Amino acid sequence: MKANALIGGTLVGLLAATALTAAVWTPFDPLAIDLRARLEPPSARHWLGTDEFGRDVLSRIMAGAGTSTLIALSTVVVAVGAGAVVGVVAGYLRGSTDRILMAVNDALLAFPGILLALGLMAVVGPTTYGLVLALGIAYAPSVVRVVRGTVLSIREKEYIEASRMIGDSGVYTMVRHVLPNCVAPLTVLATNLFGTVVLAESALSFLGLGVPPPAPTWGNMLAASRPYMEAAVWLSLAPGLCIALTLVGVNLLGDALRDRLDPRMAVA
Amino acid sequence: MAAYALKRLLQTVPTLLLVSAAVFALIRLVPGDPAQLMLGDAADAAEIAELRRHLGLDEPIPVQFVYWLGRALVGDLGRSITNELPVLPLILERFQVTATIVIVAVALAAAIAVPAGMAAAWRQNSPGDLLIVAGATLLLSIPSFWLGLLLLLFFGLKLGWLPVIGYVPFSEDVGQAVRYVILPVATLVLVETGVIVRMARASTIEVLRLEYITHARAKGVPEGLVLWRHALPNAFAPTWTLIGLILGNLLGGIAVVETVFTLPGLGRLLVDSIFARDYPVVQGCLLLTAFVYVVVNLVVDLCYPLFDPRVSAE
Amino acid sequence: MTGTGPAPLLEVERLRLVAAGPEPLVDDLTFDVGRGEVVALLGESGSGKTLAARAILRLLPPGVRQVGGRITLDGEDLASLPPSRLRRLRGAAVGMVFQEPMVSLNPALTVGAQMAEGLRLHTRLTRAEIRERCLAMLRRVQIADPERCLGAFPHEFSGGMRQRIMLASAMLLRPKLLIADEPTTALDTLTQREVLDLLVELTRDHGTAVLLITHNLRLVARYAQRAVVLRRGALVEAGPAAEILSRPRDPYTRQLIEALPRRGPARPLRREEPPVIVAENLSVVFPGRRRFLRTTPGRTAVDRVSLAVYPGEIVAVVGGSGSGKTTLGRAILRLVPASGGTIRFRGEDLLTAGPEAFRRFRLACQMVFQDPYSSLDPRMRIGDIVAAPLRHLPEMSRAARRARVAEVLDEVGLAGFERRYPHELSGGQRQRVAIARAIVRRPAFVVADEPVSALDMTIQQQVLALFTSLQKQYRFACLFISHDLAAVEQIADRVLVMQQGRIVESGTRDEVFDRPQHPYTRALLRAALMTEGPSAAAG
User: Fold this and answer.
1) Whether B123 contacts chain C with CB within 8 A
2) Looking at the predicted complex, does its ipTM rise above 0.90?
3) Averaged over A236-257, what is the pLDDT?
4) Which entry of A132, C81, C254, C477 is 20 to 30 Å from A28 by CA?
């Protein structure tokens, strides 16, 4: 399945390039209002047209790519970081520590990720920082599950016993043997989580509980486009297509990574 | 079997306790005085003091939790701040809307996706398989709210076949009710079909590799029967778990889809309550969501031995 | 090949199977099976024996294709048959028994449903008649309580029982040919013998021919009339089994026969030094699981075992699966907590000694594990894996460590492998790495847990020879845990026989192998085919 990696890599690369470009340059200022040029269809000047305030949609899409990527990356770091620590500790120590941690984790898993984020947004307030925190907490429990499962299966390997036989301490075994072998599944997980978070962030922004306007994100652009759906269809098409393409890219890349890193494939 | 069911049932008790604690804690984490938050800025000091006493906010936190939990257990989730209505009937009414749409959508999605996923796995790497996999990946990558908007635009505005916004309860006019839920259901079916197809395909591929499938073929069992009798029960077990997870997740609220189609569902209620800072309703929504999730998972697990007889033996 | 008489039942001519790779998986393979005859298809892993057998019923895995040759059954060309006609032959004319009893029966269907399936498809018997036939066949393969068995699920049975059920299910249709693909490899020695005896008896009664796919020379010698030896997809040698085993013509066949373990000269027992390790009344009880309102009783895996291992000797622990031999090895190394008894290392009681004494013990002991795929960390280079134990010898310099690793790798025949990763190595090479890791710190005591049973025969012999020569050279004491009596016969000085957690017999190798006292030892030896096998003839 080389096509997976190729298409996925291209799409994700395109996203990264767009996000990086937007950080230094966009065709227009994404926030600049031009009331004389409201709801203009795509033209040579505005490739993707303008919105209800006459802002350039292409510039906003590019800036939105930057915001979404940044939020998704930070969230993945928070969720994977916190989830991996808890998962490794629970899976390696077992016993009552494991039971208590997993009971709490299961309780958090009982809230659909996006709803937990919604609830947390109510607490932390609608700021970018709060959004990352809320999404991070919301998606960490699923990371904990995967990491703990991986650690439990690695623990059963004979090389862990061999490490004990050699006289290595528990902490050394964990750092030298358990953690490195968690990296592959964690990579796949982080990739898929990135996609999930892009989707969740745009959904929250769509609902008005994500990144506060006027900062552009694909989600709040879609929400703002609703009243003009018939009159200015490009307003709905562009951001939605961007989210979809990003997710296709991330999902394909995740599939490619999984095929490559799956331990069953590695042995054969 | 009875022992397994009982054990699984008892396992939900601590989870539900922790879930309630989490919901309780979440609202207590909101910066500021809950009474002040609930009454809004216009309230005077006497009102706030009265509410504090009523809510038991003078008591230590664990005691407050016990009171709150005790009331929740008898169905008293407090009253909405915005319209003074009791929370429980309010969220149950909204939940009906969400549940109708979600259950129909997930059932349809499973009915389409499981056969499609199995067919793809059966002819792995054939053009048909690639088509199904590509389609599924595309479907699950499309954000539900965008897909909803596109469907709305096309079938509602351009073709004018279906109503664009609103909702008619089934109890009033079944025909109209169906017309109003077609698009939201279609949106969810499309997105979830993508997810379930991939799972059904992956687990069927795993199963088809196993020796008992070759064993069945070596006995002369025709291919259709190999898939139906030998592969399906085994491949369906993980898919069944996934369907349960999806159901549990969606029942908690399909806030974005409800927003697109302006449906009076649970998710929309939660979002509106967050905006209105109507914390008793927020609390109620979250609690119901988690409760439903736990119950759905319980039902899924209790059905599991039907597909995998090994489970109840352990 | 059979020459005279009627046409053979099955004829495979110039069979050629390919997959994506450049090399064919099976190339130009020709053999036949006569009516009622037992023919063995003998080969190591990668010889293509299983694929060749599966090609007969067109049950090749995805990606493998037949590109040449003819397969005829009873004069009918199987390749030209339409799928529906072929399906009528599957099960009815040709039955199959698979290797892994744990995955060959469908876990979601009852035994009765799976047994009845073949009869329902291929006969017009009524429900009651089918049930009667199934019950009779289950009785025939000595399943206790066949009535209950029909309604039970496969997971309720042990491996040996499942293999009997599979045999019964295949023989219900009285096929003309039974393909048995390593039917007993996953079973322990005792069960292996019972199932195979049953298979041969049953097929003889029904006049069914058997194509026995195996890597085990002893099985060929005992059960097959003719043998076909395969290597890397090509035929090496074919002919009457007895002739091939006693007068092999091809060098590879000769190599296979030489790879059979045989008894070396007995070494004198040394008792001048005190024992390295002494266990007295050692017990291991796995605690029962806490269930709802009650606790299931614990399981005693090792029951008051006493043993001593002296410097320079190899003490073998033999027994069937579940005998507790693996747990005993791990308990002595303190990888599994003991529930009772004492372990003394060089006179120090490990259960009461302080952490320093325990550390001395840990640094002086090593273990070689069974599974060469699981015992090496896949993310470490071979050099680092072998050097890992040296980390705990602070007095050693970096250069000295590197030199020691190079030296040890050279000793195990893997000089220059430092920079490679485990997945680049074959199973035999991995096990050599595991041995190198075990001896790099010059241990006083090594526990080897089935160190060769996951390897191919010829590789087994090489690794076993390597292990014994290193043991001789460094004179470490060794506890050699194995279910393979042939390997034990070759290398052990003394033998302990374990059954249900207890040692039921012990003595020098010659005592135990030549004059077994306990009935369990005798049964094990008989089952290992030592009395009728070629090693007796050759040795």
Assistant:
1) no
2) no
3) 91
4) A132
